[in-house]
Amino acid sequence: MNNIILKISMVLLLGLLTIFKINAQEVLTLQDCKQKALEHNQSVKTALSDLKSSEAALTLSKRSMLPTFDLSSSYTYLKDPNKMVVPGYELPTVDGKPSGVYSPGSSSNLAYNNSYSASIGMNLPIYMGGKLRHANKLSSLGKAMAEDNVDLTKSELMVDVETKYWGVVSLQEQKDVVQKSIVLLTDVLKEVRNRYETGIVTKNEVLKTQVELNNSKLALIEVSNNLELAKMSLNQRIGNGILSSIQIQDSIINIPGHLSAITFNETHLGNRPEIKLLNNQLEMSRVEKKMVNSEYLPQIVSYANYVSQNPNRYAKQENEFTFNAGVSLSIPVFHWGEKKLKKVQNKMAIQKAELELDESSEMITLEIRQAIFRLKESLVKLDFTSTSLEQANENLKLESNRLMEGVSTTRELLDAQLQWQSSHADYINAKAEVKTNEAKYYKAIGDLRLQ
């Protein structure tokens, strides 16, 4: 009785462990993998940090047009300040004769033992030659470039994740095919052994079948190892532990039917983050040229201060607060041709940005067309492999029936099985290639999103 209870307990324990292991496996969709990769990837985090920095720079640029307020104070102690001594003397009359009136001597401080000042001031730029407006425009362009850099970094990451994801799915499909092949060859081996025992076939036929079965078992080991390595690579990319147990939701690759209708469109160029970056860079060079001009225009700044100081030559009595306000004007006059040289530098920067934009547009146009060609080639290849797979299925079915009827040899069935397995592998690889080329196409046109 105790043995029965122990066995039941062991069975229940094993069942619970199996359920726990299944639940412990993380089931991931393609969207899950992309989201996890975005949250983990250091390059994306760096690009997002640059974006936040550019947003802060834009805010600072806008606030530079507002008045600024500053509080300042100082204190100085002099142990033995200098004094001016005026000796006494007799006051003269109009005709220069002694008057008999004596003026006593006196002394006055040329410095104070305690000197201090405290002020609160306001500065407001009135006209800076357009410098503040142009600086604001540069900060806005910098923010736009940071956003484009985030999109570029994300798109490169998304392509890599899709490639690794569909690689795992294709290996899972190939593993299923090899397992079916092992089941088929096991049944064939059993049938051939029965025929050998009855003397219908030779031992050589048994050995041939056994060799093919062993090859399939070896192939299963290889594809299983490749599958584990592919999962490790995907885990690393999405931020999981490299040995984390994951399960891919997709068990088979489905190909959408609209891909064959894809054509080149000039508007796709404008969607690429690289083109947006270069356009903004070109615009930034043009704004910097205007910035140079603004530096050599008159600049007017207003100010106001509320001051308390000792000594205070502007106050009627000690410790009295005084107020002053004014406007300052600065006009650049002569800087040894500095403006002209800076304008030459800006002109060269604009030309360089225009050339980079033209070159990149040509290269991206070529990239888009290549992506379309490769996608369509992979679709044609998929169609061919689909036909080959259909023929291999029919051939295997035919040879299996012929072998059972005794009108075919084991070798013919084994050849049919090899063709069936090879056709399946080609078909699965073709589907994975289509999905990878599809992702590269959408990246090429700047439309590779998370969904």
What report would you give on this structure?
- The chain is built from eight helices and ten strands.
- Helix content is 63%, strand content 15%.
- The chain starts with a helix and ends in a 7-residue tail after the last helix.
- Strand 4 (89-92) and strand 5 (98-103) form a beta hairpin.
- Mean pLDDT is 85; it is low at 4-9 and 11-23.
- With 451 residues, the chain is of the alpha+beta class.
- The protein folds into two domains: 26-73 and 127-298 and 334-444, Outer membrane efflux proteins (OEP), CATH 1.20.1600.10; 79-112, no CATH class.
- It has helices at residues 2-24, 30-40, 42-63, 131-197, 203-238, 273-295, 338-405, 410-444, and strands at residues 26-28, 68-77, 83-86, 89-92, 98-103, 106-109, 114-127, 246-248, 299-310, 322-330.
- The protein has a four-stranded antiparallel β-sheet with strand order 2-7-9-10, with no helix packed on it. Strands 1-8 form a two-stranded parallel sheet.
- Helix 2 (30-40) packs across helix 4 and helix 4 packs antiparallel against helix 8 (410-444).
- One of its GO terms (cellular component) is efflux pump complex.
- Its main location: membrane.
- It is found in: Cell outer membrane.
- It comes from Marinifilum breve.
- Belongs to the outer membrane factor (OMF) (TC 1.B.17) family.
